[in-house]
Design a protein that fits this description.
244 residues; two-stranded antiparallel ribbon; 8 helices; binds protoporphyrin IX containing FE; transmembrane helix; DUF4079 domain-containing protein; transmembrane
Length: 244
Amino acid sequence: MKNLQLEDVILLLHPIFAVAVVFPLLGIVLYFAAQTRQRRLLPKEAGKKIPPTVGTEHLRLGRWLSNAVVGVALLGNAAPIFTKLSKEPTVDSFRVWFLILIIAATIASLVILNRARTQLWRGVFATLTGMGLIILGSQPEVYRRGEIYDFTNKQWFTQEWYLSHYYYGIAAALLMIFSLAIFPDIYKDRSQRWRKTHVVLNIIATLFFLGQGLTGPRDLLEIPLSWQTQHIYKCDYENNVCPP
Ligand code: HEM
Ligand code: HEM
């Protein structure tokens, strides 16, 4: 611990929350999802062996999961933004307040989304929560592994966007917000269309979560401790060599 500075500890909060809270919750939600589907589809006798509460347990923990994923994505964006801004020689205080306002508005939208009853309000506050995440994620301090501008040679570089922790993370968080917005419709709809949509989209979300489990630890290994950065970033990342 003595090699960590405050800034490193702040950056660690996000992976700690993901590993200690989000992934265990995901495991339980997936277990109850499989039980819910089996109970509904197995022949009567076999299905009866599964308790009738699995659907509501899946929903109860699924709601916690969605909120936790939005939280972990906010933390993943906010931590690098504010630690990088705190090191700038001059900071635009309007921008700092704007970003704080966006974070507060995103959290408020998420809270209201959890309470909203009608389809209209759920749609409105799901959109606002998603927009908040995207606005934060679009800040130049957030590393997206997408495209970067090389100021020396005046050209854009395309990076490995298909292995981006940012894009998979935002996609997973948006799918969780969508689940929060539509889950009452799963019960209302006799044709089961929403149920099927929910299952397909959340299998995709589960793949994104798996992606986060791969790309997150990779990023953790690549990012140096704060007092090592000025030395490490002298390395040539194209050819994987460092000055002696
Ligand atoms: C993490 C990924 C998730 C997966 C893979 C998943 C998958 C499933 C599956 C397989 C079912 C059963 C479908 C059937 O009966 O055929 C289901 C039902 C349901 N899910 Fe999810 N789900 C996930 C997350 C969530 C979340 C985050 C919520 C709420 C915010 C949610 C709400 C519901 C509801 C309300 C039902 C209906 C339960 C019932 O029949 O009582 N799910 N889900
Ligand atoms: C549900 C799971 C997760 C989600 C939704 C998520 C989301 C995000 C987002 C949106 C960012 C900001 C973009 C970026 O810098 O790449 C981020 C950053 C990051 N995440 Fe995650 N993440 C998750 C899990 C993890 C895990 C399991 C780890 C590591 C064990 C991890 C490590 C990191 C690191 C090291 C950063 C970079 C922070 C920086 O740039 O200083 N994440 N995450």
